[in-house]
Design goal:
The protein has about 100 residues and is mainly beta. The chain contains no helices and nine strands. It starts with a strand and ends with a strand.
């Protein structure tokens, strides 16, 4: 579990570095367990990168939810995955699981 500062910040996110570049096929995200806070994930998005500096957005949520099951577009590749808010807010999620193929 992780949490950004409580006062809110611009585009808070967590970045995951994979051991090597890979095809990223699916991501499971578990929001905070308390439904009263689900709304804070209203602008949740996923980006991928080869170098951890140039990011390409590959998914954005349509509405807040307790869990997200994301099938990424075929051929999505990278060594870094960033999950965060596409805008200002407070980010807190319980779990992120990334699936793919080397």
């Amino acid at each position: 579990a992780f949490h950004s500062p409580n006062e809110g910040s611009a585009s808070p996110a967590v970045a995951i570095r994979l051991s090597a570049p890979a095809e990223i096929r699916h991501i499971e995200i578990q929001n905070r367990r308390s439904p009263q806070f689900y709304d804070r994930a209203k602008d949740l998005a996923v980006w991928v990168s080869d170098d951890g500096e140039s990011w390409q957005q590959v998914w954005k949520s349509e509405e807040p939810a307790g869990e997200y099951s994301i099938d990424l577009p075929a051929g999505t590749r990278g060594q870094y995955v960033k999950v965060g808010l596409d805008g200002r807010g407070i980010l807190h999620l319980n779990q992120i699981v990334v699936y793919g193929k080397r």
